[in-house]
Amino acid sequence: MSETDGEKVVSINDLEFEKNVSITGAETPLKDLHKPKEKKEKSTKTPKEKKEGVVHGGSGPAGGAKKKEVKKESGLGLAFKKEENFGDWYSDLVVRGEMIEYYDVSGCYILRPWSYAIWEFIKDFFDKEIKKMGIENTYFPLFVSEKALNKEKNHVEGFAPEVAWVTKSGDSQLEEPIAIRPTSETVMYPIFAKWIRGHRDLPLRINQWCNVVRWEFKHPTPFIRSREFLWQEGHTAFATKEEADKEVRAILELYRQVYEELLAVPVIQGVKSEVEKFAGGLYTTTVEAFIPTTGRGVQGATSHCLGQNFAKMFEIMFEDEKGERKMVWQNSWGLTTRSIGVMVMIHGDDKGLVLPPRVAPIQVVVIPVPFKGIDPSDECLKVVHQLQQADFRVKADLRDNYSPGWKYSHWELKGVPLRIEIGPRDIEKKQVRVVRRDLEDKAVGRSQDIPVADLVERIGEILDEMQKGLLERARKERSSCIATAYNWDDFMAALNNKKMVLAPWCDEVAVEENVKARTKCEGDGGGAKTLCMPFEQDTLPVVQDPLPEGIKCFASGKPAKKWALWGRSY
Ligand code: 87F
Q1: Is CB count within 10 Å lower at the N or C end of the chain?
Q2: DSSP letters along 334-365, please?
Q3: pLDDT value of position 545
Q4: Residue 158 Cα distances to 6, 151, 513, angstroms
Q5: Distance between CA atoms of 200 and 324, rounded to whole angstroms?
């Protein structure tokens, strides 16, 4: 770290994360987590003949008459249990599930094809929807000049320690350090001022898919908190506040759809408090998810109305129909790869990832179960072809050095929604066995025999059912984690019982700050804050809108102005 002109300049190579307590509860440095297991894996990877009968449509050893070198199905299980050690379970899962590879720059992760494909589904959906709304994609530079970055003081204040700067090229010091974008308001708005002249230039609505860098010092967690991440950032300018307000909610609705309809993660929509809103803006709306295992809320995405703050600073003006010069109204909104981490945390179990069908890179894996020298690989390929024709994402695992049981565990670890097993007896009966990833081993309906003739139709139905079922299950659990409290004691009890708490609130900054401080020492974990003031919605039946007459703030005892949803959070 060095100092120039009183400005802190962080050389991005110098820094190490503080070894804080992990936000997931893990204190083990992440880089050490996988070392012992790597060793273990090697030892179990010695090819051995498979003994147990995992075949159906017959019994006996896989591979039939010829003894094949096949891998045992042991050694694939996760090293930690979700309920017992959530932090380590998660870190282990994203690596073993082949979503993440660790990297030698702290806080940066490699997104492997298995997780990048999920990001592409999110991207494809959202991109198509915003284009329908008339928003255009663009690309602005990664670098920000110091002058531009510091133009809007409110905006950078508080964030400054997280800005990474480039100070050198080769051996020579740059004349002026340049920042790496932590977000692009200050990159884009000088250009907005140039592009917008008259009312006919409005609205201006652009979006970019890119990476940003925020040099976080809290414990990093794959997807959830990393120093570089991927996102989309939308930036728009309007002639009127009404248009801006309308867009804020339209974008928030798309974020809800990404979470609920793609990732099967229930969210609560609402508006942020003064403390929690984006300081550079007028108001911030949010979709908030919740991780029941840790009892923490997690901000899913935000859609801000910036008001005219940036227009003032960057002089983004237009001439209206009457020839008067006016400032534009602006919005900005963003959704990041954090969404993938939230989905993993909510649906994953002790066997691995559980991917909702709409974002599963492979929806169906077809596994041959050889018996008595009969190899069903050709039938597997036929089924793959049949399902591919119907646009399912499907793959056959025909590797002959792994047993069927090993493959079952492998694809369960990766979270593939359905597996199809085909053995000789299935071929005779013109059927296949279909096994669902989302149901427990012994659950009714987890495994069913389906005639090949009905396969396309039934697979479609089952995947739809799974998609809906995952959201319903998560919503039920989430809803059971919302408590209401009218006084401090009930509030603390609920919070320490891993709940979000809906409480009548006076809406005062000092009170929120006080609650944060008091919950830090009185309970375990970090301080509680407002997650949002939920919009009226049927998923939250406890919200009574308007607030009952004469009701007091749970924390200050002053007259309450609104319902606020409180919680510990990521
Ligand atoms: C970190 C360093 C510098 C968040 C930062 O939410 C600046 C910032 O402005 C910063 N972290 N923010 C707020 C970002 C606001 C807004 N930008 C466009 C979004 C969505 C996309």
Answers
A1: N
A2: EEETHHHHHHHHHH-BTTB----GGG-S-SEE
A3: 64
A4: 16, 14, 16
A5: 13
> Two tokens at 277?
């809103």
Residue 11 per-residue DSSP state: B
The closest of 23, 539, 6, 5 to 288, measured between CA atoms, is 539
| CA 538 – CA 288 distance, rounded (Å) | 15
Residue with tokens 């530079």: 141
Asked if residue 165 lies in contact with residue 179, where contact means CB atoms within 8 angstroms, the answer is yes
Length of the chain: 570
Confirm if 263 and 359 have CB atoms less than 8 A apart: yes
Q: Which residue has tokens 């059912």? A: 465
Strand-pairing partners, residue 378, are none
What is the b/e burial string over 330-369, where b = at least 16 CB atoms within 10 angstroms of the residue's CB?
bbbbbbbbbbbbbbbbbbbbebbbbbbbbbbbbbbbbbbb
Measured CA to CA, the distance from residue 478 to residue 537 in angstroms comes to: 15
334-387 per-position pLDDT tens digit: 999 999 999 999 999 999 999 999 999 999 999 999 999 999 999 999 999 999
Tokens of 92: 């282990």
pTM for the model:
0.88
Q: How close is the Cα of 235 to the center of ligand 1, in Å?
A: 12
- Each residue's pLDDT tens digit, 266-295: 999 999 999 999 999 999 999 999 999 999
Atom 10 in ligand 1: residue holding the nearest Cα: 183
Whether the upstream peptide bond of residue 203 has omega within 30° of 0, thus cis, is yes
Helices of type H across 196-267 = 241-257
pLDDT digits (tens, 9 = 90+) for 419-436: 999 999 999 999 999 999
Torsion over CA of 112, 117, 119 and 120, rounded to 10 degrees?
A: 140
- Tell me the DSSP string of 90-151: HHHHHHHTTSEEE-SSTT-EEE-HHHHHHHHHHHHHHHHHHHHTT-EE----SEEEHHHHTS
What is the atom index within ligand 1 of the atom nearest the CA of 233? 21
Please provide the DSSP assignment of 479-541 as one string: HTTEEE-SSHHHHHHHHTTT-EEEEEE---HHHHHHHHHHHHHHSSSS--EEEEEEPS-TT-T
Cis bond upstream, residue 546 (ω within 30): yes
Contact indicator for 377, 423 with CB cutoff of 8 Å: no
Pocket (CB within 6 angstroms of ligand 1): 155-156, 159, 162-163, 182-183, 185, 214, 233, 278, 302, 304, 332-334
Tokens 């950078």, residue? 156
Give me ligand 1 centre to Cα 341, in Å.
20
Pocket test for ligand 1, best of 135, 157, 183, 232 (most atoms within 8 A of CB): 183
State CA 30 to chain mean position distance. Answer: 19
Distances (CA, A) of 420 to 34, 298, 409, 429: 31, 35, 13, 15
Q: Give the closest residue (by CA) to ligand 1 atom 2.
A: 159
For the chain, give the mean pLDDT. 88
Q: Long-range contact list for 134-137, CB < 8 A, 24+ apart?
A: 134/203, 134/205, 135/205, 135/206, 135/207, 135/234, 135/236, 136/205, 136/206, 136/207, 137/206, 137/207, 137/208, 137/209
**402's tokens:** 């792994």
